[in-house]
Amino acid sequence: MKIAVCIKQVPTREWQPRLNDDRTWVRDAEISYEMNEPDAYALEEALRLKEKHGGEVVVVSAGPSRVQQVIREALARGADRAIHAQDDALGRADAWAAASAVAEAVRLEQFDIVLTGLQSDDQGHAQFGPVLAERLGMPHSTIIMEVQIAAGSLRVKRELEGGWFQYLSMPLPALLTIQSGINQLRYATLKGIMAAKKKEIRVVTTAAPVTSRQRVLSLSVPQKSKQTAMITGSPADAAKELVRRLREEARVL
Amino acid sequence: MILVIAEQRDGRLNRATWEAIAAAQQLAGGAEPVGVAVLGSGIDLVAAELSAADVSGVWAVNHERLASYTPDAFVAAAADVITALAPSHVCLPHTYQTRDFAPVLAARLDRALLTDVTGVGRRDGAPIFTRPMFQGKLVAEVVAEGAAPHLVSFQIGAFRADAAARGTGAPVTVHVPAIGAAALRQQAEAPFQESKAAVDLSQAERIVAVGRGIKAQEHLAMAQALADAFGAELAASRPICDNGWLPMERQIGSSGQTVAPKLYVAVGISGAIQHLVGMKGARTIVAINKDAEAPMFEVADYGIVGDLFEVGPALIAELGKG
Questions:
Q1: What is this model's ipTM?
Q2: Strands in chain B per DSSP E
Q3: CA end-to-end span of chain B
């Protein structure tokens, strides 16, 4: 099995955004980054598929040179090699542009299965996977909680809303977007980190300009939809005041 | 025309469809007609239900290959009706089903898709959309690039279903799309529920919900004690259930349960949109979080910025006083 897993480098959860001067983007020089969490689950699923069916796991990421941080991490967790579609303009690009860049970079690889997370924790378009499937001419399914492979075909458990699920079958090659929680993540071992240093990262650049399908005019901090009464003081004082207000104002206790 | 793609399953309309109609009517601003297309097999009743909307027409896109949802069949059918009607915009509810097929539809039509949109406006006559970015920490004003139609999916709950204007009975047209058998690659089995939920959180009057801030499984005992002190059910955001610390049926959010209790106490939950859609209908919301910038504070009526391992026990003690 030749397995690709597409990962994105996103700001850490703790990161507090600060806007640039023209308020069209964040100050990216100040960001610390990590692997997009749903992609980490996709990587884990790819590694488990390889353990079960053999083959190789190729990690693929699109972005500026900084994304090699998460590529190295994926290699340390057990991916065999990497492809980096590199372009500074991909740092802010939308899912369309990222999927187009990745489609070009992997076109000759002939993967049996392509996995990625269901959406990114930064722009959150939830489009990259399905668009890549279309660009590669593969069938796809999204928000997957279980992957079964037997005799060249694929059966997956897709999450629906409100606690419902559904199984779907499709031929390989195929693309799946993986839901968080499908498996338990492994972490890199020291041995893995050492081994990752020797693994290949193939950098792919193209002459074609990066074009997004949407343009951000401005960014802002969300307006509060409610007046929030902030309760301050020591934990004991705050607790007392909150309980009083829930009893007397909100009348919910 | 602005075309809404309705969502139905087994002849039952997804309520978020009315929200998408309300959004489309606002986007149209009376300057262009709004139409609705519904895809399926044997969908006369759903089409009739939709014809109550104040729209110029309902298109029942009917084909036996649409009887149960698969992305390939829905992309083919939607592309067919969009090509026939040539709308300026295509509006969809941002459901899991839309997330499954709309990106492929947009790619096949070679058009822009804006997802998870929460607001529409116009500047110099051109539509501008707002959508969350960076886990709801920021809101972006965005425009679609390239030729029409532009596809737009609207966040569940961002528009009110009852704001959709009703009309006097729109005409229903049956549209039979071309769906080649060879193009259908997925085979769907019947949807099912994993387990009959042992707890129905939608009926709970009070809910205490915990998130990543709880840090470790052993701290759930304190969370349970806090829930007990409030006379509340214990629930959680997705990561807690992903870790197996609480069963999936106690998960609140787009992939879990949607609740509207009298009191919702969010403890150590930052408030990602996937969680907020499951609970923002609660009457009174309390947020307890060490991060003053957590989006949960934006929907909260009462907020305490502090360490939940200090505030939680203090609340348990205070509520214990009776």
A1: 0.92
A2: 2-6, 8-9, 12-13, 34-40, 57-62, 89-93, 113-117, 119-123, 126-133, 138-144, 150-154, 172-175, 187-188, 192-193, 206-210, 233-236, 263-267, 284-289, 302-305
A3: 60
- Are the beta carbons of B79 and B47 closer than 8 angstroms? no
Could you tell me if B241 and A145 are in contact, meaning their C-beta atoms sit under 8 angstroms apart? no
**Cβ pair B240, B211 in contact under 8 A:** yes
Q: How far apart are CA B273 and CA A19, in angstroms?
A: 21
Q: Which residue of B has its CA nearest to A185?
A: B243
- By the CB < 8 Å criterion, does A91 face chain B? no
Please report the pLDDT score of residue B198 as a whole number.
63
Residue A52 has pLDDT above 90, yes or no: yes
pTM above 0.95, yes or no: no
- CA separation, residue A190 to residues A28, A41, A82, A183, B71 (Å): 30, 20, 19, 22, 42
Mutation site for A-interface testing, chosen from B97, B129, B131, B138 by largest number of A Cβ within 10 Å: B138
Closest residue by Cα to residue B109 from B58, B163, B146? B146
Closest by CA to B93, choosing from B172, B165, B139, B157, is B157
Contacts of B123 (CB under 8 A, 6+ apart): none
Q: Residue A95: name the closest of A69, A119, A60, A59 by CA.
A: A119
Span A59-86, pLDDT tens digits: 999 999 999 999 999 999 999 999 999 9
Q: Which of residues 25-84 of A touch B (CB under 8 A)?
A: 26
Q: Which helix (H) or strand (E) holds A120?
A: none
Q: Does B193 touch chain A (CB under 8 A)?
A: yes
What is residue B23's DSSP assignment?
H
CA distance B20 to B43: 19
CB-based contact B249:B240 (threshold 8 Å): no
| Separation of alpha carbons A148 and A160, rounded Å | 18
Q: Does residue A113 come out as left (phi exceeding 0), alpha (psi in the -120 to 50 range) or beta?
A: beta
Q: Is A110 on the interface with B (CB under 8 A)?
A: no
Residues on chain B touching A126 (C-beta within 8 angstroms)? 99, 103, 115-116
Radius of gyration of chain A measured on its C-alpha atoms:
21
Nearest residue to B135 via CA among A38, A214, A146: A38
Distance CA(B238)–CA(B303), nearest Å, equals 21
* Closest among B64, B105, B71, B73 to B87, alpha carbons compared: B105
CA dist A211 and A180 (Å) reads: 29
Residue in B10, B186, B199, B298 to test binding to A, most A beta-carbons within 10 Å: B186
* Dist. CA A216–CA A224, nearest whole Å: 21
